[in-house]
Design brief:
Distance between the termini: 90 Å
CATH topology: Alkaline Phosphatase, subunit A
CATH architecture: 3-Layer(aba) Sandwich
Number of strands: 14
Helix content: 25-40%
Strand content: 15-25%
Order of helices and strands: HEHEHHEEEEHEHEHEEHHEEEHHEHH
Structural class: alpha/beta
CATH class: Alpha Beta
Strand order of the largest sheet: 4-3-7-1-8-9-2-10
Number of helices: 13
């Protein structure tokens, strides 16, 4: 016989259900949402060439805003001053020689673990837009990849709605799909965006922005000659930085429009230094030091500054920790998450960097503390020739003319010096442009020995072969013209092991 539940039983059930719903709601509201991530990557931009780092000659209002509203890192470094090796290292959290992609244009192998795939597996929507330069084998580590220049054509449609013809895409900045990629994100998932520009990579073109920079206003570092062609070259480079800055502003505006700014961690870096002599492809700070700006309104104090050492090999561990995930055992970096809330903290004593083949034969390593830099040139028989596009530049060709007429300073002659010192030591605090080599100074013998030992330990711990993989030049070191052997295939495993290409 059916018996109806008593009023008290029904009431108790309703009270229990209500309390359960309230408890679940309380737990859900108490659990913070996982942060979103946007990583902006400039292409060949020096750490110091924006207003946030003191260069008021170049117009960067949006980068300056990120610094005002977030944290500026004053000792951040890439692991290689060469485009694709730097990016492969960044994405994997491993040093270039550990990625099997340590030379320019070598694709990142599929077997390499990336932090993007870890975020994707944990429920993040992951997308890349702009410059790629990592090969095809790891594209599926992202949900979406919009590669700048891929395909190279778009369909032009007439007023009648019918297709007319295919026309070449023109996106010299590489930033054309940044905003649309952000707009396309699923609204029910946290997201990670890898937004990589082509700016300010060479070749520079006039009229990149409506109001170009004036050559008279640029800042010429002492290792470059203060000559008219140098100033014209730097002004064109500044224009591309300002163009990049404008695209960053568009993304910031879209993020605010979506109401997602508060819990989005925005990071801005460059993959290496400017494409000028004694900068890109060197291990001086002008080659490996990067701007690093981080804005995260929910956590990072506006206008804060961090002087601790950070390496781009640390980005993977940092993203993973902030997402609440376990660290991947393949990572060789260290999370710098503690610095975001305590900029006085220290997470590492040294950063390490390397340079391998990039247009020209090369093999060198460096270790830097907060104050000192040690460079070991295993290629001491070769000059520090800049990349081939920089060799063809206004600046380098002017330097050749001034060299031939005996008008360059010793610092400006460095790209031509052969042989160069096997070892270099600099007090970067006292000598920020690294112009005075202290390696033979008895007063710094203890520092030299300490940094030598630190570098040797790092090489051993990361299985870095002392002699490395050497390859022939593919361009003329004086003119930048391609040599007959320019096209070279990726080496076999046996060639990598033997070091003979």
């Amino acid at each position: 016989m059916f018996r109806a539940p008593s009023i008290n039983a029904v009431s108790r059930s309703m009270v229990f259900t209500t309390l359960l719903v309230l408890l679940i709601a309380t737990i859900t509201s108490a659990a913070p949402a996982r942060p979103n991530f946007i990583l902006f990557i400039a292409d060949d931009m020096a750490w110091e060439d924006c207003g946030a780092y003191g260069n008021k000659a170049v117009r960067t209002p949006n980068l300056d805003r990120l610094a005002r509203e977030g944290m500026r890192f004053d000792r951040a470094f890439v692991t290689a001053s060469s485009c694709s090796p730097s990016r492969s290292s960044l994405l994997t959290g491993r040093y270039p020689h550990s990625t099997d992609a340590e030379q320019l244009h070598w694709p990142l192998p599929k077997a390499q673990v990336t932090f993007a795939e870890k975020l994707k597996a944990a429920g993040y929507w992951t997308a890349a837009a702009g410059k790629w330069h990592l090969g095809n084998e790891v594209k599926d580590h992202f949900d979406v990849v919009h590669e700048a220049g891929a395909g190279g054509f778009q369909l032009q449609v007439g007023a009648d709605g019918k297709a007319k013809k295919m026309v070449a895409e023109k996106d010299e900045s590489g930033c054309g799909q940044w905003v649309s990629t952000l707009q396309a994100r699923p609204k029910d998932k946290p997201f990670f965006l890898w937004l990589a520009a082509l700016d300010p990579h060479r070749d520079y073109q006039p009229n990149a922005i409506p109001n170009p920079h004036k050559p008279a206003d640029v800042v010429v570092p002492p290792y470059l000659p203060d000559a008219p062609d140098t100033r014209r070259d730097l002004a064109l480079y500044y224009d591309e930085i300002t163009r990049l800055d404008g695209f960053i502003g568009q993304v910031l505006a879209e993020l605010e429009k979506q109401g997602a700014a508060e819990n989005t961690v925005i990071l801005f870096i460059s993959d290496n230094g400017r494409a000028f002599p004694r900068c890109k492809t060197t291990l001086y700070d002008s080659g490996i030091r990067t701007p690093l700006l981080v804005r995260w309104p929910a956590k990072v104090k506006p206008g804060s500054v961090c002087g601790g050492l950070v390496s781009t090999v640390d980005f993977g561990p940092t993203f993973i920790e902030l997402a609440g995930l376990p660290a991947a055992p393949s990572f060789q970096g260290k999370s710098f998450a503690p610095l975001l809330t305590n900029p006085a903290a220290r997470v590492r004593e040294h950063i390490f960097a390397e340079h391998n083949w990039h247009d020209f034969d090369a093999h060198k390593r460096a270790v830097r503390s907060e104050r000192f830099k040690y460079i070991r040139n295993f290629d001491a028989d070769l000059p520090n020739t800049p990349p081939a596009d920089a060799v063809r530049s206004l600046t380098f060709q002017e330097m050749r003319r001034l060299r031939d007429s005996g008008k360059l300073t010793p610092a400006q002659l460095a790209p031509f010096q052969k042989p160069k010192p096997a070892e270099e030591l600099y007090d970067v605090d006292a000598d920020p442009h690294e112009l005075r080599n202290l390696a033979s100074d008895p007063q710094h013998a203890a520092t030299l020995a300490q940094l030598r030992a630190a570098l040797a330990t790092w090489q051993k711990d990361t299985s870095d072969p002392a002699n490395g993989v050497r390859a022939k030049d593919e361009f003329d070191r004086e003119t930048g013209d391609p040599l007959p052997n320019r096209q070279r295939p990726r080496p076999t495993k046996a060639q990598l092991i033997s070091g003979k290409l």
